[in-house]
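Ops channel
N.P.: pipeline sanity check, posting one input/output pair.
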């Protein structure tokens, strides 16, 4: 279910024939996926279908058994060290709980990736970290706080600030709205949408959150049967004849998410 102009779009992540296996458990088998520049793609699938493993594989944190993963033209599985480093600075990862270093302040956490940049003046590094902290929607004083002093939502924003540290072209977000209240989740969605549109960021978003899919995702990729079963818009998903996909996009929670979206769009004209 490709969009009509998919062939004209720049592919920034290309996955072919991916196989991930742990012991006898095959998680992905012959998985293919293309991701386009500037899009927000939501990765959905039942529990254990390998959404996080896919994220980790693309980000070079998990070595697959077979297949190819190209990010921004670099073969990340076989790139020599320099090539891998080049690709690495072009993406940032935000894990579910922010995965911050507890012994460092938020600012110091955001500065960690920046320390890989040779010759960066410490004062400038600090100022850049403060910029990322405010881009992630945190108040100015958050930079001096330790992760334990922040709410869960603020920790996620701090994790996002760190993912943005090196001005990446792609960000990987693992269930960014999990554990947030509905208002906090909606705010986070809008933050991601704003960053993607203003910076041209490509966003790879693992989520279970139907509101997020409705609110900000340009495309959705469904993981099932060890591969990407289908990709397309939310509208496309409603027509997919597969038991899990049908239940997910037509179930009670899906209807509630549709109602939320309709309410957010305001009254329709007759
Ligand atoms: N390092 C690992 N070693 C062994 N098994 C693993 C490893 N990483 C993931 N798995 C297994 O791979 C499967 C897919 O895991 P993954 O975390 O990607 O699922 P998921 O789709 O993100 O699930 P959920 O929606 O519940 O978060 C699971 O059965 C998990 O136990």
């Amino acid at each position: 279910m490709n969009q009509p102009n998919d062939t004209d779009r720049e592919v920034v992540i290309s996955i072919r024939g991916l196989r991930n296996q742990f012991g006898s458990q095959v998680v992905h088998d012959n998985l293919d996926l293309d991701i386009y520049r500037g899009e927000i793609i939501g990765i959905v699938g039942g529990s254990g279908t390998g959404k996080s493993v896919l994220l980790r594989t693309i980000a070079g944190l998990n070595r697959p058994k077979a297949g190819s993963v190209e990010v921004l033209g670099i073969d990340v599985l076989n790139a020599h060290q320099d090539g891998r480093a080049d690709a690495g600075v072009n993406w940032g990862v935000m894990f579910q709980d922010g995965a911050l270093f507890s012994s460092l302040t938020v600012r110091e956490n955001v500065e960690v990736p920046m320390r890989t940049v040779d010759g960066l003046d410490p004062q400038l590094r600090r100022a850049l970290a403060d910029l990322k902290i405010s881009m992630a929607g945190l108040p100015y004083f958050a930079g001096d706080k330790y992760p334990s002093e922040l709410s869960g939502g603020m920790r996620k924003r701090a994790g996002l600030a760190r993912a943005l540290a090196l001005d990446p072209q792609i960000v990987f977000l693992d269930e960014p709205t999990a554990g947030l209240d509905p208002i906090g989740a909606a705010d986070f969605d809008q933050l991601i949408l704003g960053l993607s549109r203003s910076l041209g960021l490509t966003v790879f978003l693992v989520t279970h959150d139907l509101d997020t899919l409705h609110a900000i995702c340009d495309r959705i990729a469904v993981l099932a049967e060890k591969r990407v079963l289908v990709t397309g818009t939310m509208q496309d998903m409603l027509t997919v004849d597969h038991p899990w996909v049908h239940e997910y996009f037509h179930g009670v929670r899906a209807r509630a998410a549709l109602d939320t979206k309709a309410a957010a769009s305001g009254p329709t004209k007759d």
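N.P.: looks fine end to end. The chain has a mean pLDDT of 88.
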